[in-house]
Write a structure and sequence with these properties.
By secondary structure, the chain is an alpha+beta fold. It has a single domain, classed as 2-Layer Sandwich (Pantoate--beta-alanine Ligase, Chain: A,domain 2), CATH 3.30.1300.30. It is 41% helix and 30% strand. It is built from one helix and four strands; from the N terminus they run H-E-E-E-E. The protein has a four-stranded antiparallel beta sheet with strand order 1-2-3-4, covered by helices on one side. The longest helix has 52 residues. The radius of gyration is 28 Å and the shape is rod-shaped.
Length: 126
């Protein structure tokens, strides 16, 4: 009496390999997308900190700047960042609107824009 053959046929193995190849391709695509997103979010987080530091610096200066544009450079996370602050007068004479935009120094692409309001420092005359 003949024993039934055990194991997989060549066709079954090829189908299994095709399914495995498609699955691995999708996995590699998903992982590379995650890595790109992580790098982008890291850049945006650092840019947000740079903008926050610029506004904190304006508050610490306690100067009542005239409306206009200021530019600066900061180091954060081992990278150089360029920021641009636009100060605008508001309807309230004791309040100024400051909009800080931050971009990597090697690029003009703004990653973050932070808006804040600064009050007239104590002792400043109207």
């Amino acid at each position: 009496m003949k024993r039934p053959a055990r194991g997989f046929t060549l066709l079954e193995i090829l189908v299994a390999l095709a399914v495995l190849a498609l699955s691995l391709g999708a996995l590699v695509t998903a992982v590379s997308s995650q890595v790109r997103n992580t790098a982008y979010l890291e850049q945006r987080t650092l840019a947000q900190w740079v903008a926050g530091n610029a506004i904190a610096g304006f508050r610490l200066e306690a100067a009542w700047d005239a409306p206009g544009v200021r530019r600066g450079r900061s180091e954060m996370g081992g990278r150089a960042w360029a920021w641009r602050a636009v100060t605008v007068a508001t309807d309230d004479p004791d309040l100024r609107r400051v909009e800080v935009s931050v971009a990597p120094e090697e690029s003009d692409e703004t990653l973050v824009t932070l808006v804040s309001y600064l009050g007239r420092p104590a002792g400043e005359r109207r």
